[in-house]
Design goal:
The protein is 75% helix and 0% strand. By secondary structure, it is an all-alpha fold. Helix 1 runs antiparallel to helix 15 and helix 9 packs parallel to helix 18.
């Protein structure tokens, strides 16, 4: 059964990668793969397939609800021209200056919020700054790298780092001290290379596009919805810390608050005047196709997890390689192909805390590799998938233009961490 599941997953992955040559939507391929893999798993006698699917749907739904809520909040801010508050204050002299500015903001913002939310906000922002084309796609790519690098050194910046934090494998202060420099290098390497490529090019700010309804928010409405929306997103980690509820609940709660405020704000306007400004309209504007794609990918990978394939892979690596640093490096590379959550979960089960105590080399290096390895492929992280949906980034384009740069940054950051660890021992 396992061989069949792996073969089907590889074929589905190829179909997703070759979306444009095949003329088949990646969302369709992902959903088909999820249904087929789970059907094979159930028919082949998979252990408690229905219970396993319930668990997988619950886990996937948390992420999908989070993605949907965050994207909708960003759409509401956009509908009120909220991003003009930032774009009108950009004083970079060229594309390179803008690239560095956005990368640094993304790097630190993803550590405060998380890499997924930050990517959605920042990629949506560059759509308001740059015209469509190669340059804007490269900006989206560096935002993916910056968001994943920034999320790796924060206990709440990436879902895998949060898993290790909650599981007791790492502590908040130790992970910041241990991975900050490595994460900086992870971003700096591709950023420097891209800066050289864009050197001398002028910054051409895109003219603001107005809503088709012809209705626009007044200054007060724009400021209110921007600061309220951004503030609510920023308070999601606080909500999680205080209530101990999943982050998606914080996003949905924030969405409810923003919806009520929007209804009150526009309650005296007629339907034509408030068309395009309501949250109900924003829900129609989010990219549902990318959400469906994300759901399909999560459910497809979950089949491999419940079949024990990922755990077997980790066990084989231990026997074949032996060295922890090489094993974790490979885990990071594999996370560029499959979801890093089950990989980290399998690693947490493989290596007990009795042998590898909290804040040891294994756990910190795993947080770095699993968090940043996903940048090597556009489908390797939640940030990449979100940007892929928003900017329509093609898988093959990303491989040709970005993967090598992300890989070099990944290796450079890993080298810095290993050297830093040995120097401090």
């Amino acid at each position: 059964m396992n061989a069949a599941l792996v073969a089907l997953f590889v074929l589905a992955y190829l179909a997703i990668a070759l979306e444009h040559p095949l003329g088949v939507s990646k969302s369709a391929s992902a959903l088909f793969a999820a249904g087929l893999l789970w059907s094979v798993y159930a028919l082949a006698g998979g252990t408690h397939a229905d219970t396993a699917l319930d668990e997988s749907v619950t886990s996937a739904a948390k992420i999908v609800f989070f993605l949907m809520g965050a994207m909708t909040i960003v759409e509401v801010i956009d509908a009120h021209d909220g991003f003009d508050l930032i774009t009108t204050r950009i004083h970079a002299r060229g594309l390179v200056g803008l690239m560095w500015m956005l990368s640094i903001v993304t790097f630190f913002l993803s550590a405060i919020l998380d890499n997924l939310t930050t990517t959605i906000v920042m990629v949506s922002m560059i759509k308001k700054i740059l015209d469509e084309g190669e340059e804007r796609l490269m900006f989206a790519a560096i935002i993916i790298i910056a968001a994943n690098a920034g999320g790796a050194w924060s206990p709440m910046g990436d879902v895998t780092t949060t898993m290790l934090w909650i599981g007791g494998q790492i502590s908040a202060l130790a992970i910041v001290k241990g991975l900050f420099l490595a994460s900086v290098v992870n971003l700096a390497v591709p950023l420097v290379v891209m800066s050289v490529a864009f050197r001398g090019r002028p910054l051409r700010v895109r003219k603001a596009e107005h809503h088709s309804t012809g209705q626009h928010a007044v200054v007060f409405e724009r400021n209110l919805m921007f600061f309220l929306g951004a503030g609510l997103l920023g308070l999601v980690p606080v909500f999680k810390t205080v209530t101990h509820l999943p982050v998606f609940m914080g996003v949905l709660f924030s969405l409810g608050i923003l919806w009520i405020v929007g209804e009150i704000l526009h309650r005296h306007k007629d339907e034509e005047a408030k068309a395009g400004l309501t949250l109900a309209h924003a829900l129609k504007q989010i990219d549902s196709s990318s959400i469906v794609f994300f759901l399909g990918i999560l459910l497809a990978v979950a089949t491999l997890e419940h079949a024990g394939i990922l755990e077997q892979l980790a066990g084989w690596l231990t026997r074949a390689v032996g060295r922890l640093d090489v094993i974790v490096l490979v885990v990071g590379l594999v996370s560029a192909v499959v979801d890093n959550v089950p990989l980290v979960a399998a690693s947490m089960g493989m290596f007990p805390l009795s042998q590898h105590p909290p804040d040891s080399f294994l756990w910190e290096f795993l947080a770095y590799c699993a968090g940043t390895g996903g940048s090597i492929l556009v489908v390797g992280s939640a940030a990449g998938v979100a940007a892929m949906g928003i900017e329509r980034i093609e898988f093959v384009w990303y491989v040709k233009r970005v993967s090598l740069l992300a890989f070099l940054g990944y290796l450079a950051g890993a080298g810095v961490y290993v050297m830093q660890f040995h120097l401090t021992q």
